[in-house]
Amino acid sequence: MRALKAIYLRELGAYFHSAIAYVLWVGFLLLSGFFFYSGTMYYSMASVQALRSPMGAGLNLYDMLVAPLLGNMSVLLMLVTPLLTMRLLSEEKRAGTLELLLSYPLSDFSVVLGKFLAALTMLALILAPTLLHMAILGWLGPLYWPLVLLGYLGLLLLGGGFIALGLLASACTENQIVAAVTAFAAVLLLWVLRWSASLAGETWGPLLQGLSLSAHFENLAKGMLDSADLAYFVLFIGFFLFASIRVLEAKRWKA
Fold first, then answer.
1. What range defines the domain where residue 222 resides?
2. How far apart are CA 255 and CA 154, in angstroms?
3. How many domains does the chain have?
4. CB atoms within 10 A of CB 222
5. Cys bridge to 162: 74, 81, 238, 243, which one at CB 3.0-4.6 A?
């Protein structure tokens, strides 16, 4: 546990000494703020039209504004997380410090989990200010907070999956750019799997739908709590963390 804490604090501190973390933070907040403003303006215009026409009655703040905003932020996470994870192990390999790190009395599990938790904490800090958007909406109109918190849980689980996959990509190469591009391509592929599910037939279609990241996240973003979605993300994260540990084990044996 002490080794895990040491790795976690080391990696979290490295983020705050890196300019790229602040650039990602500001960029994410600017883009999410733009989506919030655009969505609020659209909802305002739709509300005005609803007052003039009975066809627009029954507008739902969560379905029309919050859920699409969470969806937009999930796409931003797809861009942000590869940049958060690209240096976690690839930089250690490039600088030659990975061999030194592995020579310490640290388990591969502690190294991988410590780096994963540090990146996940950084991601949570990036997401945290966007709760102000939800507070503003709650002040302007009725907002069911359990649904909002469930949506943010979905963002954290989705981000955790992205980070675990990015950590594996970083473990497999010494080049940070290669790690970032590989991680982005992998998460993008897993994101769009559901798009081809309808064309894959009755056998492969449900499988592609079940493997798609977007399908499981959208259920949480829409306020539908299903144990299958939670299990999917836990298994997804666990699988890629386990794969990263095995890569480090192979590196240790070669050393």
1. 2-254
2. 39
3. 1
4. 17
5. 81
